[in-house]
Amino acid sequence: MNRVDGRQKVTGAAEYGADHDPDRLAHGYLLLSTIAHGTISAMDTASARRADGVLAVYTPFEPLTLHPDPSGLSMTGQNWVPLADTQVRYRGQVIGLVVAETFEQARAAAIRVATRYDALPVAASLEAGIPGATAAPPLFGEAAVLDRLADGVASIDDALAGSDVTVSAGYSQPIKHHAALEPHSTVAAWSGDRLTVHGGTQSPTGHAQSIATSLGVDVSAVHVISPHIGGGFGGKAMTWAYAAVTAAAARDLGRPVKTVLTREQTFTIVGHRSAVRQTVALGASRDGTLTAMRHVGHAGMSTSGGIPEFSAGLFTRVLYPTPNLHAEQLVVTMDVPPCTIMRAPGEESGSFAVECALDELAEKLGMDPIDLRSRNYATVNPASQLPWSGKHLDECYRVGAARFGWSRRPRRPGTVHRGEWSVGMGMASTLLGANRFPAQVRIRLRADGAADVDCATADLGTGMWTMMTMTGAETLGIPVRRIRPRLGDSTLPFSLGVFGSSGTASVTSAVVTAAGAVTTALIEHAVTHERSPLRGLDPAEVTYREGALVYDGGRIGFGELLTVTGTDGVEATGADQGGDPATHAFHSFGAHFCEVRVNRFTGEPRLTRITTVVDAGRIINPKTARSQVIGGVTMGIGHALTEGARLEARSGRIANANLADYLIPVNADVPPVDVHFLQYPDTVFHPLGARGIGEVGTVGIAAAIANAVYNATGIRVRDLPITVDKLLG
Amino acid sequence: MRQFTYTTADDLAGALGQAGADTAYLAGGTTLVDLMKLGVLAPGRVVDINALPLRGCASDGSALVIGALERMSEVARHPAVRAGYPLVSQALLAGASPQLRNMATIGGNLLQRPRCGYYRDISTACNRRTPDTGCSAGGGENRNHAILGTGGRCVATHPSDLAVALVAVDATIRLYGRDGAREMPLADFYRLPGDTPDIETELRPGELVTAVALPKLPWVRRSTYVKVQDRAAHTFALASAAVAVELGRTGAIRQARVAVGGVATTPWRLPAVEEALRGCRLIREEVEPAAALAVAGARPLRHNGFKVTLLPRTIVRALLSLAEGVEP
User: Fold this and answer.
1) Is pLDDT at A76 greater than 90 in this prediction?
2) Dihedral, CA of residue B188, residue B193, residue B195 and residue B199, to nearest 10
3) ipTM of the complex, rounded to two decimals
4) How far is A32 from chain B (nearest CA, A)?
């Protein structure tokens, strides 16, 4: 089904956060630190204050009143309070806000603020910090270290040493940024002691809670509105410093204030995916059966807090069974901007290392990469020993290989050429946990025959408006045109938000529950209301079918019934409590296949085609799902070929903090992507049989590309991105 | 961005009359406005010259003359450019994005400021932006920087693709200032950074670029522009080569033009390579030794050593692509 908000978006009618201009609006421009570590000794704001249109300049010396969150429950991205102290934790930290009548005036005044620092030495090299690394905080239930050794095996090193064949290598990748098209923004307007905030967020309820905590007000006083989001990818899951600072300035000035981050500012104010170093060692018997696996990950962490990339996690621990496993995640804490979740946190980087290592093992064993994966096919989750609610990864390999033409893969690397290009093929697996998070949906059946479907969830551009419309229509048995969805508003029934590929599963499962509850309420209304033609019937004699109540001798649509009874509407709320039954393991699976060409003179790696087969249960809307997988694959292309912050180790400065130098893929980098869904409904996991698809496209694609580059050239690049300089031979 | 006065000019005299030390001319605005937002440029007065009669793309007998206010996209698709100077058309299409090419002018393209991240970040030291403050790129992030034409106080590459192609065909640039009109080879228009990297060209105060003139060279039909970049489009060159060859009856090169971008502080002509190519056939074994001369005297920095390998290969790739239709 087409997006229900598609027309709004292509005509520019859809309103994003920064599109709101309340009366008497003032504009904020953030001041950022220009050193990475130390303290601010002085800020001369006199000249800025005198500049045209300036209303206020807030700094640590003339601060706003903001509060920490001792509970840790609010979703603030960091461990410090903006403007509350003079400490500088990273370069590009918020150290002030200039507010003026216009954006241009605020920006012009900001340049006039002179800041002096007492600088301290900067630690910004992941490599240099590895000797001092510490255990990673547990993430999503995964402990930093997982050891599993077969009986009689003393250590993972012994297990590797005792294996017939081993491979061992290091893999690395730089910091990466979400780079959402819509920059982060806040429009904060107070009315008395109530605050309305417009601004893109993946969690309207979490955003409201974070801002309320920072301001020291009750969450009920904060109303977050975010109907459309121009991309999030995890970067809009947390609430970053600009939001509370803007809301506090609006409170102080008694005027609405809008702050929109510049592109450069998003690179440091908003968290990033950590830089990562990993080592993977695999041991196998001659037939390819894995006998040992050691995966140690080091991720960059910021002194300002955040969530580091957890590479040696799920992907390593769940996908392939091995009698001996050591998975260990460490962090290196540095004077760098905050790290946070980014599409497939952990699996994105972890899959790159593991799936490349498997390719290296296949090469050493002389096996086809698919045969090696099939040889090590898990039928129960190796970590929990639970069966999967649904796993058809073997079929993904089979179907993908046939659609792609895997049998034509060059046997020997670097042997097939087309004109001035070397050609190669690669593949990799993908895996992602299937999650459901708490969500409530309220359905209100209305006298005009329409049904409101309400939830405080968000639409990142992924299709939630459409998803709520489709599943509302499906569960109520009425046409989609009669569904009126509402989302992106913190006052709607609670949703934790959209992340972890959980949005569809969480919200639509609550839609199913809400639909059941509202039809029960409708029947109750029908048999009790004094003007109802069904009054006095036993509820058991009345059934709801396709928008109508059916009973002995009659049928009445809910719109007609509510019209007759003079009732505006009947509503009920259903909930998905989140969490999974302990009977099964729940994951989405898939396989990527790709063909690359590498210029024989100048080394440019370019993709020619990709096939991705996804096993994610029932796909509710294949049209938006296909888009989402292509988007995930595109982000993976960036992972493999173009993206990475260039962090200056000496200064902690990101040298390419703009979209001309931080290279996200353009259309010309994205080849035709053949997306195929297996469509086996998973009703153990979800009443409609759906698992998540938001991240599964991103996981593994970088390995597939790196493996294809090796197949094309014989050059194994283990340090991402795979750029020209690494392929000149 | 500093507050500024915005005025317009309808003719050359009107533009010159408004020019002063604190003035910037506005054409497409794709460089100027960008750098004003960043605080790198802060003119007190901006004179919009888009109404000046500096348009057109026409032959004046010995040259194809392109008005300075022609947009990149218009020139790229002009039949005389596409047919007669494929390397120029290709260089234009290799630069920027369609949206920028619809705005950016030929004159502005030739006057682009460097894309060095330090030049564009006013919180860092940069000799080109603020003389004698130091160069952050030398000891900083310099993967995209120059290996040729350095040695002075700046290592930023010249960002224009177009200028490389024009230098290859001996284009001249036409200027108009208080002393009247003058014309000079485009190659001479650009200055090496030396001790004064803030002075990028021979442009005099207030002087305007009015046109570029491409000499008639029928054999330049056999030419190309190859740009190596980190993604398929919309980025600056790691290395680029504008090449044209005239072939004799035997398929040997009678004369060649080779200029390169992405590697040097100015659009960089390679006369030694051109000389060595004379008599070579368009086969790898014969052109490779000539192309290798491109990096004689190259001074790689910490992150851009790969350009020493990449540049000759880019030239070879460009040359061999011209072999189409040549009898072996």
Assistant:
1) no
2) 70
3) 0.96
4) 11
Query: Counting beta carbons within 10 angstroms of the beta carbon of residue A6, is it exposed (0 to 12), middle (13 to 18) or buried (19 or more)?
Result: middle
Active site residues of A: 695
pLDDT tens for A489-502 read 999 999 999 988 88
Report residue A393 as tokens: 């990864």
Residue A275 pLDDT level (bands cut at 50, 70, 90): very high
Phi, psi of A695 (to 5 degrees): -120, -15
Residue type, A345: P
CB B275 within 8 A of CB B254: no
Q: Rounded CA gap, A81 and B129, in Å?
A: 35
Would you call B186 exposed, middle or buried from its count of C-beta atoms within 10 A (0-12, 13-18, 19+)?
A: buried
Q: Choose from A601, A663, A667, A727 for mutation: most chain B CBs within 10 A.
A: A601
Please state the three-class secondary structure of A376-404 as a single string: CCCCECCCCCCEECCCCHHHHHHHHHHHH
Q: Which residues pair with A185 in a beta bridge?
A: A260
Nearest-CA residue of chain A relative to B306? A725
- What tokens does A81 get? 């309070």
Question: How sure is the predictor about A504, in pLDDT bands with cuts at 50, 70 and 90?
Answer: confident
Q: Which residue of A has its CA nearest to B288?
A: A601
Check A669 against B316: CB less than 8 A apart.
Answer: no
Are A602 and B306 inside 8 Å of each other by CB? no
Per the CB < 8 Å rule, is A648 touching B140? yes
The residue assigned the tokens 């024009």 is B166
B48 with B9: CB under 8 angstroms?
yes
Calpha distance A480→A476 (Å, rounded): 10
Decide: helix, strand or coil at residue A208.
Answer: helix
Mark yes or no for CB contact B1/A602 under 8 Å.
Answer: no
pLDDT tens readout for residues A624-638 = 999 999 999 999 999
- Residues A665 and A286: their CA atoms lie apart, in Å, by 40
- Say whether A214 sits in a helix, a strand or coil: helix
- DSSP strand pairing (B57-59 vs B63-67): antiparallel
Give the number of other Cβ atoms within 10 Å of residue A307's Cβ: 26
Q: Give B65-78 pLDDT, tens digit per residue.
A: 999 999 999 999 99
Residue A114 touches chain B, beta carbons under 8 Å: no
Residue in B closest to A115 by C-alpha? B123
CA-to-CA distance for A291 and A285, rounded, in angstroms?
7
Instruction: At A13, give phi and psi (nearest 5°).
Output: -80, -25
Dihedral in degrees, nearest 10, Cα atoms A191, A195, A196, A199: 140
Structure tokens at A699: 């996981």
Q: Which of A264, A263, A218, A222 is nearest to A243 (CA)?
A: A222
The answer, for A27 touching chain B at a CB cutoff of 8 Å, is no
List CB contacts of A616: < 8 A, sequence separation 6 or more.
A434, A588, A589, A590, A677, A690, A691, A692, A693, A696
CB contact burial A83-110 (16+ within 10 A = b; e otherwise) = beebbbbbbbbbbbbbbbbebbbbbbbb
- The string over A421-430, giving b where at least 16 C-beta atoms fall within 10 Å of a residue's C-beta and e elsewhere, is bbbbbbbbbb
Interface residue A691 vs chain B (CB under 8 A): no
Of A646, A648, A724, the CB nearest to B310: A724
For residue B318, the chain A residue with the least C-alpha distance is A601
Give chain B's contact residues with A (Cβ, < 8 Å).
Answer: 1-3, 37, 39, 115, 117, 120, 122-124, 139-141, 143-144, 226, 228-236, 238-239, 306, 309-310, 313-314, 316-317, 320-321
Instruction: Extract the tokens encoding A471.
Output: 């599943």
pLDDT by residue (tens digit) across A516-542? 999 999 999 999 999 999 999 999 999
